[in-house]
């Protein structure tokens, strides 16, 4: 069944996908974006996630919107762009695919922040990408981080 446009931020990214959180479910934390955060999520999907999907096929979002309570519960930074609906974390199945995603975004798309993150303890990798809609300026800041 095709989702209605009210349930979608863009052709391939749903509201549910961009606010889903296993941690929020486990802890009983409400994780609903407001109107401004929803528009930010829509712009992130249209300007960054859709072009990435069109180039590489299906991508998996592991974290999109986070309420303040959820952000605190997972130990997110106090000023996380996830809380404003401006950021998403993308699952990276392996380093080669992660590099292709990273380079495509870095050299092709407008973005605010792009982080290729590696967790040394378990080898987990993900891309954090953010987008700010006008009048905000997108910094185009890209870096690799090991945590």
TrEMBL record:
Gene3D superfamilies: 3.30.1380.10. It comes from the Bacteria. It comes from Segatella maculosa OT 289. Residues 11-95 form the Peptidase M15A C-terminal domain. This is Peptidase M15A C-terminal domain-containing protein. Signal peptide: none annotated. InterPro entries: Peptidase_M15A_C (IPR013230), Zn_M74/Hedgehog-like (IPR009045). SUPFAM superfamilies: Hedgehog/DD-peptidase.
């Amino acid at each position: 069944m095709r989702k209605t446009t009210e349930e979608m931020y863009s052709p391939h990214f749903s509201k549910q996908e961009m606010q889903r959180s296993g941690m929020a479910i486990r802890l009983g934390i409400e994780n609903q974006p407001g109107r401004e955060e929803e528009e930010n999520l829509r712009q992130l999907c249209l300007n960054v996630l859709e072009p990435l999907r069109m180039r590489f096929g299906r991508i998996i979002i592991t974290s999109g919107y986070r309420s303040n309570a959820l952000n605190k519960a997972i130990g997110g930074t106090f000023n996380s762009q996830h809380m404003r609906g401006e950021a998403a974390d993308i699952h990276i199945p392996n380093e080669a695919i992660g590099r292709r995603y990273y380079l495509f975004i870095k050299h092709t798309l407008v973005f605010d922040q792009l982080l290729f993150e590696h967790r040394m303890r378990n080898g987990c990798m993900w891309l954090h990408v953010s987008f700010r809609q006008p009048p905000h300026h997108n910094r185009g800041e890209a870096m690799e981080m090991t945590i």
